[in-house]
Amino acid sequence: MVAFYYSEPSRTFNEFLLIPNLTEKNCTPKDVDLKTPISKFKKGEQPDLSLNIPFSSAVMQSVSDSTMAIALARCGGISFIYGSQSVADQAAMVRKVKEYKAGFVVSRSNLTPQHTLKDVLDLRKKTGHSTVAITDNGTPNGKLFGIVTSRDYRVSRDSLDKKISEFMTPFSSLVYGKSGITLSEANDIIWEHKLNCLPIVDGATNLQYLVFRKDYDAHKGNPSALLDDNKSYIVGAGINTRDYKERVPALINAGVDVLVIDASDGYTEWQSETLKYVKSNFDVKIGAGNIVDREGFLYLVESGADFVKVGIGGGSICITREQKGIGRGQASALIEVNEAREKYFQETGIYIPICSDGGIVHDYHITLALAMGADFVMMGRYFARFDESPTKKLKIGNNFVKEIWGEGSNRARNWQRYDTGGKEGLVFEEGVDSYVPYAGSLKENLDKSIGKIKSTMTNCGARSIEDLQKNARITLVSATSLVEGGAHDVIMKESSLSGE
Ligand code: IMP
User: Fold this and answer.
1) Would the CB of 316 count as within 6 Å of ligand 1?
2) Is the pLDDT of residue 422 over 80?
3) SS3 for 219-281, per residue?
4) What is the pTM of this model?
5) pLDDT tens across 13-29, in order?
6) How far is the CA of 260 from the centre of ligand 1 (A)?
């Protein structure tokens, strides 16, 4: 007996290009729909869960917290909140996303009627907020007694000891909205009464939220937002194969929409056990991975996975291949898993979505991944660069950077992700602690990436991801023609952008 050798080398996205197909006149970027399934479904039926754009953010401490999840769901994608934290903390992040109502903010500056003008001025100096809610107990959800804005006092005339009850706009004179009101109804009241801020109260006149005039424009224009039936943002969460009996119920209780077992190598009996347990005890969607071949794919599908994540060793912060010598070029992995998925579909009539995880460097890698069969991609480095990622923005030399560290680094200490049933703890690292160039806001960057993906899809004559998967023509590039792909044989001006 000898070990099995693959005759083909394993390949990365950089080694491939797409060849244009005929572009019909009614195939322009605005005709392209990027909606994509994230949970398995039967032929002819609709998936229970889809994304409006094929983007998910990685299950990483330095990438996916509630702020990222809200920002990405607002644009139509999904975040998987990292699992390398306590069950309570992860559930709190999920709950925060589910309870977030775009444009409805919990009041952050609150005082009681017994406080004084001096207290108002001190609070204003501290928070910068000019609207202070006055509640019976000074909390954001206390009984609303009034509102104070700069129009209610004159610092030059009023005594600093003056009680708020003497100068606030009392509840009886306030225009307010009732709980359950929509953002656009709140906005109508704001305009009708020429208000800057509308308090929203419940049936017992307890303050729930404030809606500000200035926020409306920022929140109204998200036609692709990924929402559930209650108009809350859809959110995912990562779990491991150790504490799932405790973690999964807590996440479901917090409202999570989809789970993923996050592991470096998912072709394990622990993943199978976890999938079977979750599927037989809860009504929740769950993905599994990561795997890089047909055997791993079928194993997880037969154990009950709703989607399968592909990729080992290609992540930007990943040193698994160097440390352990396991992994596979992301393109080769995807191509083989896609073939297995297609065969499984032909045989069973069940479509299993595939997520390509890790190794996306250029936007065109996303389009290639989709063409090679991915239904969506997962990215860490890409999202870590934005304002919305949880890490610090630092200045190094003349450049701003953001931190990113792998889940297999000593910093994250996520030993469960690399668990191979041995003793608890990271024996060696599989990830690094590093920086990425800061790139600004998520939406701005995402709009650009989506613009490029749609444009490439029209070159390939595809109006949907399914079209692209069926009809794309993909070619290998030789080492020599790689040089031809970038700008070459010219002298670059400094202002030329290399682009992402
Ligand atoms: P990126 O988009 O290239 O940054 O890859 C992100 C992916 O890398 C994640 O979704 C994980 O699958 C993987 N990953 C995260 N942390 C580590 C690590 O420490 N070592 C190896 N892979 C990691």
Assistant:
1) yes
2) no
3) HHCCCCCCECCCCCECCEEEECCCCHHHHHHHHHHHCCCEEEECCCCCCCHHHHHHHHHHHHH
4) 0.84
5) 999 999 999 999 999 99
6) 14
pLDDT at 500: 47
* Residue 318 assigned to a binding site: yes
Pocket test for ligand 1, best of 62, 240, 292, 318 (most atoms within 8 A of CB): 318
Whether 318 is catalytic is yes
Lowest mean pLDDT among 89-103, 238-252, 359-373: 89-103
Dist CA 68 CA 391 (whole Å)? 11
Percent of the chain with pLDDT over 70: 96
> What is the whole-number distance in angstroms between the Cα of residue 329 and the centre of ligand 1?
14
Structural domains in the chain, sorted by start: 13-101+225-477 (3.20.20.70), 110-212 (3.10.580.10)
Is 313 marked within a binding site? yes
Q: In a 10 Å sphere around its CB, with 0-12 CB exposed, 13-18 middle and 19+ buried, how is residue 240 labelled? A: buried
Mean pLDDT of 467-495: 87
